[in-house]
Amino acid sequence: MQKYIRNIYRGVWTVLVGMRVTIRQFFEPEVTHQYPYEHDYEKKRNVREIPKGYRGQLYNRVEDCIGCKKCEMICPVDCITITATKLPKGEQLWDSMNVVHFKDGREVIGIIEGSEKVKPGEAFTVTNITSRQGPQVVADRFEASNDAARVQTFSTDEVARIVTRNRVVFYLDRFDIDMSLCMYCGLCTEVCPTECLTMMDSLEGIEYSKFDRTELIFPFANQEMYGEEDVEEPAAAG
User: Please, are residues 197 and 188 in contact by the beta-carbon 8 Å criterion?
Assistant: First the structure.
């Protein structure tokens, strides 16, 4: 009989202990956020900084894409689709930009004034400096920028390597990336000769969830940067 009463006592006691924790938490502020409608978690101090080199969403700096299709060919899951039209022989649109990698991990994207073959120990100037992601104005690369913020001079002693400019001889009719298929291996970014294809290591590289899977297909081809008249001639020549 005593054992029976003791078991009842223990059962009631454990329920009360659990309810004490539950009731205490009932009056605490909410910790659940209705993602993706709410992003309050970004304000919390325990959110860690996204490390450089994080493999997030693929982004193509399409103005520097030369249409070589190396990324499409190496992709293990065929998440990249490219359709391009080549210009007549001897013609080109513009040159891709230089990417200067420094020994301390920094990188600068712009146009190296003069020859790309900088000599050791000498200084060189990079103009029309731009960012990894975001739209660019193609006309900016034809003439040196007068904006002092977009012009910098560096020493070759700081440089680890320089990505040389490449001739852009293709009109990109289509450059689609299906992020619902992407396996984040990064192979496509490694073979890109102009390093225009990158994986975003910012919050935008993580925050791209959609309710419809078809919305995870991101188109990067931009016909406006060619101009209407320029697009028709190669198509007729094709």
Answer: yes
| Cα separation, 155 vs 60, whole angstroms | 29
What is the torsional sign of CA 169, 152, 129, 161?
Answer: positive
pLDDT at residue 192 in the model: 94
How does pLDDT run across 92-133, given as a tens digit for each residue? Answer: 889 899 999 998 888 899 888 887 777 787 888 888 888 887
Pairing assessment for the beta strands 58-60 and 197-199 based on DSSP bridges: antiparallel
Name which of 133, 107, 100, 114 is nearest 199 in CA terms: 133
The confidence score (pLDDT) of residue 210 equals 86
Q: How many CB atoms lie within 10 A of CB 183?
A: 11
pLDDT of residue 237: 36
DSSP code for 212: S
Q: Where are the alpha helices (DSSP H) in the chain?
A: 2-26, 70-74, 187-191, 228-237
Read off the tokens for 219.
């188109």
Q: Give the whole-angstrom CA distance, residue 68 versus residue 189.
A: 13
* CA pair distance 184, 28, nearest whole angstrom: 39
The pTM of this model reads 0.74
Backbone phi and psi for residue 171, each to the nearest 5 degrees, phi listed first = -85, 130
Question: For residue range 122-149, what is the model confidence (pLDDT) as tens digits?
Answer: 888 888 888 887 666 777 777 777 788 8
Q: What's the rounded Cα separation, in Å, for the pair 221 and 61?
A: 10
CB neighbours of 200 closer than 8 A, spacing ≥ 6?
A: 54, 56, 57, 58, 59, 133
Rounded to the nearest 5°, which phi and psi values hold at 162?
-130, 130
